[in-house]
Amino acid sequence: MTALLEVRGLRKHYRAVRRGLRRLFARQQTGTVRAVDDVSFVLQAGQTLGLVGESGCGKTTTARSILDLVRADAGEVRLDGQDVRPVLAGTDRAAMLAVRRRMQYVFQDPYLSLNPRWTINEALREPLRVHAPQHQRDWGDRIATLLERVGLEPRNGVRYPHEFSGGQRQRVGIARALAVEPDVVLLDEPVSSLDISVRSQILNLLAALQDQLSVAYLYISHDLSSVRFISTHVAVMYLGRIVEIGAVDEIFARPRHHYTAALISAIPVPSPGAVDQRVHLRGEVPSAMNRPAGCPFHPRCAAALPICREQVPVLQPMGPNTQAACHNPA
Amino acid sequence: MDADFASSPVSVLATLQRPPAGVWRQAWHRFRRNRAGMIGLVLVTLVVLTAIIGPFVAPYDPNDNAAMLRGASNAAPSARNWLGTDRNGYDVLSRTIYGAPTALAVGLGAMLIASLIGVLVGGVAGYVGGFTDEALMRGAEFFMVVPVFVVILAVVRLFGIIVVGTPLERIPNFNLMTIILLLGLFSWPQIARMTRAEFLRLRHAEFVEAARCIGTTPREILFRHILPNALPPLIVLVALGIGGAILAEAMVSFLGFGDPKSISWGQILFFNYQSLKVAPWACLAPGTAIFVTVLGFNLLADGLTDAFNPRVRA
Amino acid sequence: MRSIPVSAPDPSPAKAGQPGPLLAVEGLKVHFHTRDGVVRAVDGVDFQVGTGQTLGIVGESGSGKTVASLTLLRLAPPPARIVAGRVVFEGENLLLQPDKRLAEIRGRRMAMIFQNPATSLNPILSVGQQLTEILRWHTGVSRQAALDRAAELLTLVGISDPAARLRQYPHELSGGMKQRVGIARALLCEPALLLADEPTTALDVTIQAQILDLLADLRQRLSMSMVLVTHDMGVVARMADRITVMYAGRVCETADADTIFNAPQHPYTRALLESVPRIDHSYSGARRVLPSIAGRPPDLLHAPPGCRFHDRCPEAAPECRRTMPREHLVAPGHSVSCLRRGSPGEETP
Question: With contacts defined as CB-CB under 8 Å, which chain B residues touch A97?
Fold first, then answer.
């Protein structure tokens, strides 16, 4: 069975070099930031893959590479088996639009992702203008339906983004992504800029929309609690690589990679006196420019073996529905 | 307005920074409360009105120096010549009024040229990036370090010699147009730099990426998203530049390098500064006009800066 | 009108001999006078912190928790105006002290850790300069003694090779490291009370865990009191002895951490706890719906009359629209401000 979205060996390296004339004057400081390194995963229709990790682990770059907002160095992004990276980068506009229509992005900060000079109606008209130019008469109705679907009153469409609260703006961001009836929506930290009492509203909305439209989500977040709520599957990234991937309950119940375990146990549980069986991590995430040799996690790992220092572990099946890249799994 | 749609967000700080409705409207709201900006707007309006209706109401033809023939040059203000006459027998009021369209032509013309070049160069540099950016910006820096006045004086003098006997000589206000062109040619780098900075900022703005995700064409992104959002700081810069260009033309003319056939305030000063003691009104009137106009545009720019700055409290 | 001060028995019996709380805030009101009107950011807030105790102040943005904590040192930025109330710290009302006295207290008796370590350190001063400056200003020790003390503190907050770090500038440090320096700076003069405003919000989760560990350990070793302001229920659960829940400028509920989490009384506290997805809970299989609070926090410029939570409250009664509840004790050490829990009310216009 072909997966709805399959990412294979996605790679994006940044070379830190000074460009232009400055190269003549500055001391050369080159290095390669392996922002995304050989990332592969599969997303089926109606599923949600939570992509988690700490800042700088490459989760956002992964999502942006999928949509060609950042041009990946290598890898394939297959939508129903067809590699769409050449299409997105290519010149065939009709083909490009066909792909863009099926994959949409919801940004972290809905205030930044809406043009401040456009009303909500204008913002929602843009996807329709691009993808359904011939149905101009229906736009008004479609926009009203969209706003209702995300829990906003259509009469508020004449307002500007800054007149809305954060939660409402994020609803607009979601409506905009849904305007073209996509099959996959990439959600980049959609609730982290929102107030706690509003977060649950947006998470519920996302869950409800998925149930109604059976759209697939790639949910990017550093907040593991919301990942646990919204996701069916989860992929944990560390320094540009997926270190563990699988069904959400299996991974949360029994993380095999030591980083996953540390990450999960680092989340303070809202029950005082919860048994403190935390995995304490030494040090901080090294810069992606000087990634440690071998397993990138070994300098911080309590269970590191000599082999971890030399050989990069690859993802191997660890349970019925999970894989982890670890020489000495828990 | 329903309860869920109270007009302002809840956070105290957000309340303080809350911009009121509509972005241009919001700028206007802020501008209206800015006293300096409003004074600037009034002064500029005054100058513009003078330039438009002045020629119809001016008591004399600007080139009418009949007073000299009557021996009434350097005459003090009187009922006949409200601001007196100058050493050449021109009516000071009429000539000052006729100086307004010239000043505006210089200011607007120079900044129009500067904006066209600046936005184009800055826009390309910011949008394309890479080597193009590098090359264009180094070019802009070249124009910033050239001493503008020396070049203008030299070119005006040179043209004055070259055009004699050519059809160019018959073009009215040829010298003035040269000055406008040169002022424009040397004022664009600031605009280019600002445009580039705005384009760089906006090129990676999330709403531009959002538009790319939807499949909006680069052209539409440029004209519907980037340009309108880059405009406010450019408008401020242009308003400031208009004042600067008017002042520069006045200085060039005062040094005697202006266009003898056009009527400009700097030129009136140049003709009359030697008789300052005898007929101070002949210098005071154009001097005040320059002062008011330049001050007006500067105050206007000041007000616009605040109006477009979202951090200034509404 | 002053709310009845709620006596908070010190939970640690060892400290029972203390004469009174280290810090007592009574009837504090801080209003922002804006062009559009008066924003009642903090509108009658009481809380106490005992010696060696950690008080967690929890609330959403706009609840007034940050303004309240900044007001303890009179640091709330203009146009904030302290309208009423007392802040009694070590026996003196800080709101009445002259600026000079307050400057002596700041950093020395009561110190602050800021949310964003990146901006709370001066970028053009080295770590050593920033740390010794405060120490020398407060205690007048020699430069070398101050440097030694700074190095000692860096070691205390878990920074290795302190001598080298003292010479570094903020941009050379990682986020977690900067926050450690911020903590070291706050601890320089061994304050009796540490104010921490969202100390880990800007940090990654594994670094957050390290910093929380550090704070818990320091509090123990230095027997320091702490006021921890946060929106994260998990963080207060881990750190706080007592918790004050704030909503729209008022205190909803104050109790021991256990009580807040296991037997919350105020509808807002309950809703807030339920609406946060839990990492230790499986959501697959069942219909994924989080119990969520409808609507959003009120605009404090036009604060609703009566209980400020009434329009979002599942238990609201008609009286809640008119009557503002006052805090009252429902159990020893547990006060709630809700008419449906028997709080006395006061009519609002």
Answer: 215
Q: What is the pLDDT of residue A25?
A: 54
Partner-chain contact B214 A109, CB within 8 Å: no
Does B8 fall in a domain? no
Pair of tokens at residue C296: 């959003």
Cβ separation of A130 and B10 shorter than 8 Å?
no
- Out of A20, A115, A131, the one facing B207 most closely (by C-beta) is A115
Which ipTM score applies to this complex?
Answer: 0.83
Q: What are C186-218's pLDDT values in tens digits? A: 888 889 999 999 888 878 888 888 889 889 988
Which of C34, C248, C299 shows the shortest C-beta gap to B6? C299
* Six token digits for residue C172: 């050379």
Closest CA to C280 of A267, A189, B113, A198: A267
Start-end ranges of CATH 3.40.50.300 in chain A? 5-17+30-231
Which of B12, B313, B314 lies nearest to residue C62, judging by beta carbons? B12
Q: Tell the CATH topology of A5-17+30-231.
A: Rossmann fold (3.40.50)
Parent domain of B155: 30-54+83-308
pLDDT, tens digit, for every residue of C107-134? 889 999 988 877 888 888 899 998 888 8
User: Which residues, in sequence order, are CB contacts of A202 under 8 Å at separation 6+?
Assistant: A167, A170, A171, A174, A190, A191, A194
C-alpha–C-alpha distance, residues B277 and B86, integer Å? 12
| Set of chain B residues whose Cβ sits within 8 Å of the Cβ of A67 | 213
C-beta neighbour count of A1 within 10 angstroms: 5
Q: B206 and A21 in contact by Cβ < 8 A?
A: no
Interface touch A270/C234, C-beta < 8 Å: yes
Give the distance from residue C62's alpha carbon to the nearest chain B alpha carbon, in angstroms.
Answer: 4
Measured CA to CA, the distance from residue C189 to residue C134 in angstroms comes to 9
pTM score, whole prediction = 0.83
